[in-house]
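User: Show me a protein chain along with its predicted structure.
Assistant: Here is one chain, sequence first, then structure tokens.
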Amino acid sequence: MSYRLLAVLPFIGILLGVPFVNRVEPLMLGMPLVLAWIVMWVVLSAVIMAIIYRLDPVNREPVEPGAANAAAEGRR
């Protein structure tokens, strides 16, 4: 369950980190520093969520071959 604490990193990076990088200069990839910071954390958020998904044991369980079809037929 400790891997789920990784989800706190984007929150800290975007909300608590912005006041420390709230500058126009230097430019990074043509963007002011604060905008580049936010864009970086949006991308990192997706990477962090992918890591959490991979580490979650629920996603490692094998699925029975006919389970998806049986679930779909049960909804009809």
